[in-house]
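Hi R.,

Here's the chain you asked about this morning:
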Amino acid sequence: QAIDDDCNQTGQILAAMLDWPQGTFASRVELEDGAVRVQREVDGGLETLRLRLPAVLTADLRLNEPRYATLPNIMKAKKKPLELLAAAELGVPAGPARLKVLQVQEPPPRGAGERVDSVGSLLGKLRHAGCV
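And here is the predicted structure, written out as tokens:
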């Protein structure tokens, strides 16, 4: 479940772009031969979908219980070697970069706020600024 204001847009847009089936807000996932069975909560109860693979799934909070890293395990993880793999080893085709960063800059600083005495005064200022 994405942090896009809990709108669950990312998985659905990706599924549409790939033209793959989608199972959103999955609370239970079971793999089958060439398919996946997804159970999700809907207003009327539970809905079960069977999707052919590949598919895009988005998770509900009830899909699993998160594990929290303890300090000793974090320290152990720092000592483990990091294995680097080339993209070709994973079957990812090589090619020129599809994106190019043209510029990075900070947004302009925000102006100071302004207090108004009444709602009428606020509406007048908003009209004058072209916001209403």
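One quick note: The longest strand covers residues 22-32.

Cheers,
M.
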